[in-house]
Amino acid sequence: MSTVVLLLATGLGLGALYFLVASGLSLIFGLMDVLNFAHGAFLTIGAYATWWASVSLPWAAGSGWGFVAAAAFGTAAGTVAATLLELFIIRPLYGRHREQILVTVGLSLALPALVQAIWGADPLSFPRPDLVRGTVPVLGVAIPNDRVLLIVVAAAVLAALLVFAGRTRYGLIVRAGVEDRAMVTALGIDVRKAFTLVFAIGGAAASLAGALSGLYFGVVTPTQGVSLLIFAFIVVVIGGTASITGCAVAAVTVAMIQQFANYYTVAGLGDIAVVAVLATVLLTRKGGLTKRVAERVA
């Protein structure tokens, strides 16, 4: 029983990390119709900016509040990068999907190479602040605090994104702008500002995932963003490309499959099982495994 509880907690923590990465990807694609292959770059920026702040800035090291400040710094760095990307590269390419893919794929390859040139290819040890040291007892099992932190943050981000997409003026403007940009512009609404805001929010979610991924894995690497982006795409496809709720359900599902398959079979079989689920969804349920549920909830 204790093993199952521990696997469930670990799976929820990993699922929370997947959701943070995939939610921004789903938001940008679902609301803006932009397939951003450079999304993992925001995660890398967030991870390395948080690591740099933790080891270089006296006020961002050691204590729990210091880590919060470092994570805020990393998230802000990724958000700024996402905003600049939308303003200077993506904005001229709206409606030109082939060019979007080529440019973002190029950026996804260039940034890890740049990070590797500056800090090297070896994994860098991520500082563990007082905030996440220790465990929390759950059903007699000691659950690491970093897993609990990931779950709480992901739940808060899910609630905030649902409110933004379905209850705020900017969320409605973006949805209408994707459907008929000319009509929305004719009403005197600047769709471009709303698009920039959505891209910044998506980048913030990814960079926040980067800031917390160091806690989960214990290290940061130049290719960490690319690796997590692969699973983020799988989560978005399984959950439905236009559903944040479906994205959350799919993230937990993918993480649980990985954890249980890797533990009860052989290492690596969890990834194969996830790919098998992805193939099944693509062949049988166009629009995502959770499409019907997500349409009712989101």
Biggest beta sheet attributes: 2 strands, antiparallel
Structural class, by secondary structure, is mainly alpha
How large is the count of helical segments?
12
Please tell me what the overall shape is.
globular
Rg, nearest Å: 19 Å
* Strands, count: 4
Please trace the helix and strand order, writing H or E for each element.
HHHHEEEHHHHEHHHH
Give the helix proportion (percent range).
over 70%
Total domains, how many?
A: 1
**Beta-strand share of residues:** under 5%
Biggest sheet, spatial arrangement of strands: 1-4
Low-confidence sequence ranges: 292-298
Average of the residue pLDDT scores: 87
Kindly, what is the distance between the CA atoms of the first and last residues, rounded to a whole number of angstroms? 34 Å
Protein name: Branched-chain amino acid ABC transporter permease
Transmembrane segments: 6-29, 41-61, 67-89, 101-121, 148-165, 194-217, 229-256, 263-283
Family: Belongs to the binding-protein-dependent transport system permease family. LivHM subfamily.
Membrane topology: Multi-pass membrane protein
